[in-house]
Amino acid sequence: MRAALHIAVAAVIGSVVPLAAAQEGNSASGVMSIGKFTVELKHVYLVSAPVDGKPARRLIFSANDIGTGIGKCTTISCATYDLKEGLELEIDTGARMNLWAVANGQKVQHSDTAPRGNLTTTGDSGDAVAGTLAIDRSGIGGPKISVEFKAKLTKAFKG
Q1: What is the pTM of this model?
Q2: Which end of the chain is less packed: N or C, by CB atoms within 10 Å?
Q3: What is the full DSSP assignment across 76-100?
Q4: DSSP output for 108-129
Q5: β-bridge partners, 108
């Protein structure tokens, strides 16, 4: 019985430690306003998955820590399941980036695109991205975003 407990504890620790290690050095500091809601962006996650045989990366900015949920996911579409206040940004989609902004427990949502020029990178090595993001779509009811960040790859999905 005791050996089984030790094995179970080791399995849980083994599944949490890689995600915790991946999050070391990740940081976000900024604000997103959408409608009458303001979201403080404190966390960032970099996830990737192949799209049409090519690597595609997304940055997920959130007010709350959703890393554990991302760690449990088996597909990239699941990565934003726990995102209630924040932003998902597809950064490898060409000249324009796809974005999905949410606030108030996902009761307020906005999907849009933004020019790649709104993302200024100070580092981009494929498995890490750092820089600033400044987008203002408030004129059409979308978000106004200003955030500085550093993100190492949190999870690479297989497909």
Answers
A1: 0.85
A2: N
A3: GGGGGTT-SSEEEEE-SSSSEEEEE
A4: EEEEEEEEGGGEEEEEE-SSEE
A5: 103
